[in-house]
Specification:
Strand content: 25-35%
Oligomer: single chain
Strand order of the largest sheet: 3-2-1-4-5
Helix content: 25-40%
Order of helices and strands: EEEHEHEHEEEHEHEHH
Structural class: alpha/beta
Distance between the termini: 56 Å
CATH architecture of the largest domain: 2-Layer Sandwich
CATH class of the largest domain: Alpha Beta
Number of strands: 10
Number of domains: 2
Radius of gyration: 19 Å
């Protein structure tokens, strides 16, 4: 991908029931071959929340179109002025991911802009890694439901950038610690995410916990990581990009259960 002196990125975050948002980021300066912004800055030209009011049901599908239009209008630009579209591809809320990825694809197609998906757990690891020392072995644990948790393991490089070494996977909460032990070459020293405290206690290794209320990354992190990834990897195939669900939806689980009963002799 080319690295213009100014890059406008539309970022979409809908992986969580709460905290969903869209944002407009502008990177000014040259982007180096390592994906880092060389002597440049990233500013946020605007963001809009997709959250419903207190006590209301999530309304991503209803709100995302109007909020995107208002976001661009507030910034005084048109869709054709967008240089790239970034979207959280999960894992996360089944409905939220479907809405967000569909909106990102549609917008990228209409704006003739490259599209880049960013993993939710990878983005949370970036946020957590900013406060950790190089070499830290970091686990991410995010609640999927009352019974299951999303997991991934990372090692931080010399610049405290996370490199994923295992996951993402979904496991029953009672099996999360066993999965970490089986996939970590050394003891995990820090855990982030809204299931971090529970996992740290189950591991019993004294791992520190971060961001215990974080169930999804911030939309600005999605945009920043997309800028870096576009330079290193290029854009994703918009036709092939799909949400990372890791599990069936409730409707699909019921259908699968019904079919298994039908197949029972």
């Amino acid at each position: 991908m080319s690295t213009p002196s100014t890059l406008r990125v539309l970022a979409i975050e809908t992986a969580a029931t709460r905290g969903a948002a869209v944002a407009l980021l502008r990177a000014t300066g040259r982007i180096g071959p390592d994906g880092e912004l060389d002597g440049s800055t990233i500013r946020v030209d605007g963001r809009r929340s997709l959250d419903a009011g207190a006590g209301d049901r999530p309304s991503h599908a209803r709100r995302i179109g109007p909020e995107l239009r208002d976001l661009l209008a507030d910034a005084g630009i048109a869709g054709r002025d967008i240089d790239a579209v970034a979207v959280d591809v999960g894992p996360g809320s089944y409905t939220g991911l479907r809405v967000g990825v569909a909106a990102a694809k549609g917008f990228a197609l209409a704006a003739d802009a490259p599209l880049k998906g960013v993993g939710a757990l990878d983005a949370i690891a970036v946020e957590a890694g900013a406060s950790l020392a190089p070499g830290t072995r970091l686990g991410i644990a995010v609640a999927s439901s009352a019974r299951e948790v999303y997991l991934a393991l990372f090692e931080l490089d010399g610049a405290s950038r996370p490199n994923r070494v295992a996951g993402p996977v979904i496991r029953p909460r009672g099996e999360a610690a066993d999965w970490v032990r089986a996939n970590a070459s050394e003891a995990t020293t820090a855990i982030a995410g809204d299931a971090a405290v529970e996992l740290a206690e189950a591991l019993g290794t004294g791992a520190s916990t971060l961001a215990p209320d974080t169930g999804a990354p911030d939309v600005e992190t999605i945009g920043r990581e997309a800028i870096r990834a576009l330079t290193l990897e290029g854009p994703d195939d918009a036709n092939a990009l799909a949400p990372l669900y890791l599990r069936l939806s409730e409707a699909e689980e019921r259908l699968s259960h019904d079919r298994s009963k039908d197949d029972t002799p």
